[in-house]
Amino acid sequence: MTEFEPVIGLEVHAQINTDTKLFCRCSNNSFGKEPNINICPICTGHPGQLPVINEAAVKKGLIAGIALNCKIPNFSKFDRKNYFYPDLPSGFQISQFDKPVAEKGSLKIDVEGKKVNIGITRLHLENDAGKLTHTSSGTLCDYNRAGSPLMEIVSEPDLRSSKEAVAYAKELQKILRYVGSSDADMEKGMMRFDINVSVRPKGDQKLGTRSEVKNLNSFRSLEKSIEYEIKRQIELINGGGKVVQETRGFDESTDTTVSQRGKEEAHDYRYFPEPDLPPLEFTDEEIDELRTQIPELPAARKARFVDDLGIKVDDAVILCDDKTLGDYFEKVVNGSKNATKAASLITSVIIGLMNKDNKNLDELNISADALILLMKKIDDGELSSSAVKTVLDEMYESGKDPEEIIKEKNLVQMSDQGELENICKTIVESNEQSVLDYKNGKDRAFGFLVGQVMKETKGKANPGKVNEILIKLLK
Predict the structure, then answer these.
(1) I need a surface site. Which of 50, 82, 100, 243 has the fewest CB within 10 A?
(2) CA-to-CA distance for 6 and 197, rounded, in angstroms?
(3) Do strands 211-216 and 92-95 pair parallel, antiparallel, or not at all (unpaired)?
(4) 35-42 — which CB contacts under 8 Å span 24+ positions?
(5) Taking the domains of the chain in order of start, what are their residue ranges?
(6) CA 49 to CA 43: how far, in whole Å?
(7) Helix/strand/coil (H, E, C) string of 404-473?
């Protein structure tokens, strides 16, 4: 039986996080708002209304393009893409056809330890359509989102599996957030995917007939729709049928795709230059200035955390997943000079608290300075690791100062050498059998003695010093 290879291209629509829409002054923040409250004659397509370009949206689009290793042309323009649908009030979309703001880029992804380079055809700007809600009595139109600034990022057909597609989408989301171009929050509809999937006999260079699946709004939907399409197309070909070019939708309840309509080619949109907007022209100096605004990107940051700071790869992946969390970690490292301990506390305790009630880092009441203070107390032998977790849990619940919590709960660790020696001597003298067992090679006996010391001190003894003293006494 013929072995097939999938060929996948991804189109990502990401909402640019400006205060206002792309061509008018209406608010760009419509999530959860009353329908049709953020609208005006421009974004609802009234005759005679003239659009004005949002400069901030253009700059954010350019910065995203630079971060994706794209070439930034000196000349770009907007075009009218003509089609008719209830969520598009003007009957056309202002997009970019042959002169996008960014093109010929690339993004390197890591899939199961393998580096894969995915080409990016283009990044272009366009205004979003509205939202339709279908009911038994008709279709409701909400134009709050109409006119919101979007960037559409189109990949080359370089993806070969659902895992590669998801890895690409996740890395792209991180980059857009790192450079501040988009919040890319899929739960709020700020990032959506269209996929083009085809299959061909392995080794062939000719592309097969593709199907497009539109408006996917989660990584799970992205993965499942690709897996279903690959399976569907292979079974269709093996059964003597042919794949037809069409647009399909994804049914999340069954993890299947369903046919929606035959696919129009690009020229059916009758593109022509947007007559009401001037072209965009950028000097080399302006583009170079934007390059200076690109921060260290997640892949480079992850490599630095592992190579220079010596933390585990798994910890580095978690810490670089969100720029705010990575910045927090770096501040703690700079203050504590202990990257390994900082990574351990943040990935276990801090993230655990964030997940507890689905809070972000700013809502935890645990500053980087507070964590640095607690780490210093560990280094000085004043606090145990378990006591640190107790302090952080209490800070999360009450917002109290860490010093106040330590004092209230009497958490200061016992580290006085003389006091600990006296307690250890008493434990050794009163547990002759355990001492004998230890000397006969039974290691568990040593743990028992340590436990007795911790019990006597109500868990406040410094474990490291207890071990040292007991070893010395038992010799």
Answers:
(1) 50
(2) 7
(3) unpaired
(4) 35/140, 35/142, 35/144, 36/141, 36/142, 36/143, 36/144, 37/144, 38/144, 39/143, 39/144, 39/146, 42/147
(5) 4-288, 298-408, 417-474
(6) 9
(7) HHHHHCCCCCECCHHHHHHHHHHHHHCCHHHHHHHHCCCHHHHHHHHHHHHHHCCCCECHHHHHHHHHHH
| Strands 79-82, 92-95: pairing kind | antiparallel
Q: Which amino acid makes up residue 158?
A: D
> 């139109």: which residue's tokens?
141
Strands (DSSP E) found in 170-325: 191-201, 211-216, 246-251, 256-262, 272-273, 280-281
Identify the DSSP state of 279.
P
Taking the C-alpha atoms of residue 300 and residue 69, their distance in angstroms, rounded to an integer, is 14
Structure tokens at 432: 């002759």
d(CA 411, CA 434): 29
Domain 417-474 classification at class level: mainly alpha
What is the Cα–Cα distance from 343 to 336, expressed in whole angstroms? 11
Per-residue pLDDT of the chain (475 residues; tens, 9 = 90+): 689 999 999 999 999 999 999 999 999 999 999 999 999 999 999 999 999 999 999 999 999 999 999 999 999 999 999 988 889 999 999 999 999 999 999 999 999 889 999 999 999 999 999 999 999 999 999 999 999 999 999 999 999 999 999 999 999 999 999 999 999 999 999 999 999 999 999 989 899 999 999 999 999 999 999 999 999 999 999 999 999 999 999 999 999 999 988 765 545 788 999 999 999 999 999 999 999 999 999 999 999 999 999 999 999 999 999 999 999 999 999 999 999 999 999 999 999 999 998 999 989 889 999 999 999 988 887 887 778 889 999 999 988 889 899 888 888 877 667 887 888 889 888 898 888 888 888 878 888 888 888 888 777 787 778 888 888 888 7
Query: How far is it, in rounded angstroms, from Cα 270 to Cα 93?
Result: 11
Residue 427 CA to residue 72 CA, distance in Å, equals: 74
The first and second tokens of residue 147, run together, are 């006119």
Q: Residue-wise over 230-250: b if at least 16 C-beta within 10 A, else e?
A: bebbbeebeeeeebeebbbeb
